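Could you join me in thinking about how sequence relates to backbone shape in a protein? Would you write everything just below, so we can both look at the same thing?
***
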Amino acid sequence: MKLSARNQLKGTIVDVVKGATTSHVRIDIGGATVMASITNEAVADLGLAKGQKAYAIIKASDVMVAVD
């Protein structure tokens, strides 16, 4: 797999919670957890399951940081 995105975090799926149309997928990336909201169809197409290795790929232009 080759992608132009540079923010690729390899980890292990710790949870997949399916909703009516969208699933929340949590990936442990070495002590920190990243959560993605993706369609149930994408979960099925990728065959995502707890314990599976996966990548969290983050589009940097959509990441926001805030402080008080």
